[in-house]
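User: I'm putting together notes for a lab meeting next week and I want to include a structural view of one of the chains we've been expressing. I don't have a solved structure, so I'd like a prediction I can at least talk through. The sequence is below, exactly as it appears in our construct file.
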Amino acid sequence: MIRQQSADEQLFYTHQEIARPASGNFYMRLDGAVGDWRKLADPFRRAFSPGMGRPTDPVVYLKIFLVGYLENITYDTDLAERISDSIAIRRFLGYSLSESTPDHSSISRNRTLIAEHCRIEDVLTQVVALCEKRGLVDGELSAVDASLIPANASLSSLRSVKTGKGVREHLREVEEKNKAAESEEPAKQKRPTVSNEEFRSATDPDARIGKKPGHPRDMCYKATHVTDSKSGVILSAGVSHADKGEVEAAKPMVEEAKENLAQCGISLVKLAADAGYGSADFHAFVEGLDAVPITNWRADSTKKPEGFKKESFVYYKEADCYICPEGCLLRYDSFCKSTGLLLYRSEASECACCANREKCIEGKGNVRTVSRHPREESRERNIARCHTQEGREILKRRKHIVEPPFGHMKTYGGLGLISCRGKAKANVKVVMAAVAYNLVKLVAAKAHAAGFTASDNRLVRAVQEGLRALLRLLAALEPNWSAATWESVRYRPLPA
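Assistant: Thanks for the context. Below is the predicted structure for the 496-residue chain, given as structure tokens.
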């Protein structure tokens, strides 16, 4: 007869009767791996001081933010419900079954206080130090990259900064003006455009229009992080506006990564990046930190024929000039303030009598112009490194170092969407996702150091079952065989 399961109507339960999470539960293992949670949550303390009117334990909200990542929860309402339902999470947070856990409004409100009054990056610094003690960080090779994360705002919420009109009304007006100008010259027609300079979201002013090849436009934030190559530990992470350049967004992250390594007594040796960081400015910045940049570089994509591209012009540092393939001299002419580049131009008289003038000079121009960054030598050194065997191997490894954390956090860590609004609160979510990602690495390293993992558990159980079957067979063949021996094997505990 099958026994039907029904809810126990017992009113009171003893302490021993309440179900407890298993010792192998991840939250229990995480609790033991960190140890001193008070120290880890110390950067949160300013947001929970009695003077702020919120004398709550900061450890609770540090753990709540970690649960959001570990459970792949995006919205605070779902996070509050999950915390209330789980016995293991309640025990992890320090709540008994009879206590009310924080609701979604408390979680959101305290995230705002933390974003306004605390330096969230200090938590990540401590976690990097814990990972370094486990031997997960060496600083020999790191990589930096950025990714766009959708914001909790839509394109329809955009409004003009100057007029306050909505984006749909703006596009409608432009279309009406174009129809009225159909009888006039086509050049007077204005193409409808929407830019971050002219429009802001009414729901989240910090969100920006994100543009990525092959993807539709959306309101986004740009998340940047630096990852160590040894075990994939995130050294630094942060959020910037989606329309901010990758190089400018990466500079504070690289500096923070270097500082976090320095606190562990480690130096940032090499830094890999993709072609988006291939500017001379970024290479000079990394070299200024006593590190070696190794980035992909973009070849000259101009339509000029081979032999007449910029790379074919030879620069002479002593004379500060270029020599073209035909031997003509290009002297320094001016500095372009908009691009920050130095401009070198040839003499019109020399170009006029050149047999390859049409290949070298486009259009109606009469001289050839070559631009150069003031720190172009840094970029040239990087290109030389990319052509070495070591440089090629590092560039192959780059995507395997820096891209998995983004993929994991956006797919399994609740960062498929920045549900909160405002750059400061978005930064809290991204940094805490990086903290949780590193702590998962830390827990796995501790289990590996103990020589026991989940796969080991299954293997041990399979071996024990085989031994038990063998002992039962021996007991059947030898009745006088000691029953105590059988019991010792049967109830032998698994490794902790």
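A couple of points you could mention at the meeting. Confidence is low (pLDDT under 50) at residues 489-496. The longest strand covers residues 215-228.

User: Perfect, that's what I needed.
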